[in-house]
Amino acid sequence: MFDQAVFVHGCWTEFLYFVRAKFAIFVADGIRMSSFSN
User: Fold this and answer.
1) What is the DSSP string of 3-32?
2) What is the pTM of this model?
3) pLDDT greater than 90 at residue 6
């Protein structure tokens, strides 16, 4: 049970990092696009 909890926590952490990276790229692209269009 403890091993499973550690495994789930590891997967969840990886998932959060993945989402955060995607969001950061999306935000950076949005800022770049808006600054170019001005």
Assistant:
1) HHHHHHHHHHHHHHHHHHHHHHHHHHHHHH
2) 0.56
3) no
Closest of 24, 2, 1, 20 to residue 12, by C-alpha: 20
What is the b/e burial string over 7-21, where b = at least 16 CB atoms within 10 angstroms of the residue's CB?
A: eeeeeeeeeeeeeee
At 38 the pLDDT is 61
Mean pLDDT for the stretch of residues 23-30: 93
- Residue type for 31, please? I
